[in-house]
User: Which sequence fits this backbone?
């Protein structure tokens, strides 16, 4: 029978993979979360963004964040990277991607029926650029990319100054976006669906507001957990 891993060992391993951010880095992430989500909420209230817009933004933001993260690693020797920084093996990645596609297709096929009018309008536009412009997500995407690049460059220059292990402060920033993709449409579907028969226009706002609330909550929760919920491993006091 294997000996269970104690809390100190588990937290030490978790801390190595997802290190505690510095105070400036945490403040930067906090401001970025509030700023980007506040802008998306503004677009929703101004009727410039719909549920389809928010989903497209979340997917594209996650892809762009992953590209930036892996691009920065190209300039870091393998010996200086954290364990697991390269991600899953290719076989596991393919399986995870296939499962995610099937899951997300099923969930969003149901959840986005509330936004069928906007989806039909987007489907009749000639190209992807026109669709992105119609969804009004190019500006928030550009803002997210700029903030992520600033954070990534700050990590890289900091590593160049001090040497040793390259520790990205944005190590966990992708986790809440994945949680949002998986959980937010389910919660939003029930909340928005409750208003469809009474006020279809308000139902879209309710769906979008719920989606953004889950997104913001997940991002702040992960940030708080990373800052406060993973203390450095210490030996337990003997009694």
Assistant:
């Amino acid at each position: 029978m294997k000996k269970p891993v104690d809390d100190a060992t588990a937290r030490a391993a978790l801390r190595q993979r997802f290190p505690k951010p510095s105070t400036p880095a945490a403040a930067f992430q906090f401001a970025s979360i509030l700023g980007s989500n506040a802008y998306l909420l503004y677009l929703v209230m101004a009727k410039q963004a719909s549920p389809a817009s928010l989903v497209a933004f979340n997917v594209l933001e996650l892809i762009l964040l992953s590209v930036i993260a892996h691009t920065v690693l190209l300039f870091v020797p393998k010996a200086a990277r954290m364990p697991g920084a390269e991600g899953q093996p290719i076989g596991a990645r393919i399986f995870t991607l296939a499962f995610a596609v099937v899951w997300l297709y099923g969930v969003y096929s149901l959840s986005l029926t509330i936004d069928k009018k906007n989806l039909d309008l987007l489907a009749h536009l000639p190209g992807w650029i026109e669709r992105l412009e119609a969804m009004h997500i190019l500006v928030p995407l550009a803002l997210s990319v700029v903030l992520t690049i600033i954070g990534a460059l700050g990590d890289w220059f900091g590593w160049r100054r001090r040497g040793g292990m390259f520790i990205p402060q944005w190590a966990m920033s992708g986790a809440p976006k994945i949680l949002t993709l998986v959980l937010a449409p389910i919660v939003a579907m029930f909340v928005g669906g409750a208003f469809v028969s009474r006020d279809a226009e308000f139902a879209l706002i309710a769906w979008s507001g719920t989606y953004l609330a889950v997104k913001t909550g997940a991002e702040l929760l992960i940030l708080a957990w990373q800052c406060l919920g993973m203390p450095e491993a210490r030996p337990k006091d003997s009694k």
Notes: The longest helix spans residues 200-228. The two ends are 25 Å apart (CA to CA).
